[in-house]
């Protein structure tokens, strides 16, 4: 899970994650989530935080009212791993339950 | 509360908020909070989120593991108001309870 994703494996992982893209300035993936309001955005963050803590793998995220800009990368690996892909999928899943 | 803070009033407000400083790129105040770990950081955010929602005044915040970079500004006023100073003080108060 903590091996860096590169080449076709990485492309395949990203294709399976709609809305996620490569970060501009570093080896990471990023997505902007938009909710109805702050309460919905922070509720989503709270559910994700519990999963992230259990995984011992945490997002970087910027919350501005109803939006959350997420960046995922695995510090130990110096880039994107399957752990990031797994957390990205969980984030999408929880967001899908809300809408 | 929603009147823009300028001049001596603003200086006075900032002096009463240790660790807070003017943002570099816009009319806002900012502070970096550092906690013991993610759980403590997100626990603090959750308590602040409840207050922010009650105030109907929300922070911009970037959480990276145990750190939270907060930026406060009042959108309607296009700058820093007493509402921001009040939320900053509450954030400091909740952080002080944790340590």
| Low-confidence blocks of residues of chain A | none
Q: Give me the CATH architecture of chain A, please.
A: 2-Layer Sandwich
Oligomeric state of this protein:
homodimer
Percent of sequence in beta strands of chain A: 15-25%
- Could you spell the SSE succession of chain A in H and E letters? HEEHEEH
Helix content of chain A: 40-55%
Given helix and strand content, the structural type of chain A is: alpha+beta
Mean pLDDT of chain A: 96
Key words describing this protein structure:
4-alpha-hydroxytetrahydrobiopterin dehydratase activity (chains A, B), Pterin_deHydtase (chains A, B), Gyrase A, domain 2, PCD_sf (chains A, B), 3 helices, 4 strands, 99 residues, alpha+beta, homodimer
Task: Describe what this molecule looks like in 3D.
Chains A, B: It is an enzyme of class 4 (lyase). Chains A, B: Keywords: Lyase. Chains A, B: This is Putative pterin-4-alpha-carbinolamine dehydratase. The structure is a homodimer of 99-residue chains. By secondary structure, chain A is an alpha+beta fold. The first copy, chain A, has a single domain (7-98), classed as Gyrase A, domain 2 (2-Layer Sandwich). The first copy, chain A, is built from three helices and four strands. Chain A has helices spanning 7-15, 38-55, 82-98, and strands at 21-22, 29-34, 60-64, 67-72. A four-stranded antiparallel β-sheet of chain A has the order 1-2-4-3, with helices on one face. In chain A, helix 2 packs antiparallel against helix 3. The radius of gyration of chain A is 13 Å and the shape is globular. The N and C termini of chain A lie far apart (29 Å). The interface between A and B is medium-sized, with 15 and 15 residues. Strand 3 (60-64) of chain A pairs antiparallel with strand 3 of chain B, so a sheet runs across the interface.
């Amino acid at each position: 899970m903590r091996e860096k994703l590169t080449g076709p494996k990485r492309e395949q992982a990203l294709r399976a994650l709609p809305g996620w893209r490569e970060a501009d300035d570093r080896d990471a993936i990023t997505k902007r989530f938009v909710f109805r309001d702050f309460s919905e955005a922070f509720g989503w963050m709270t559910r994700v935080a519990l999963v992230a803590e259990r995984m011992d793998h945490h997002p970087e995220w910027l919350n501005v009212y109803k939006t959350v800009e997420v960046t995922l990368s695995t510090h130990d690996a110096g880039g994107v791993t399957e752990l990031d892909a797994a957390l990205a999928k969980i984030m999408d899943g929880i967001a899908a339950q809300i809408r």
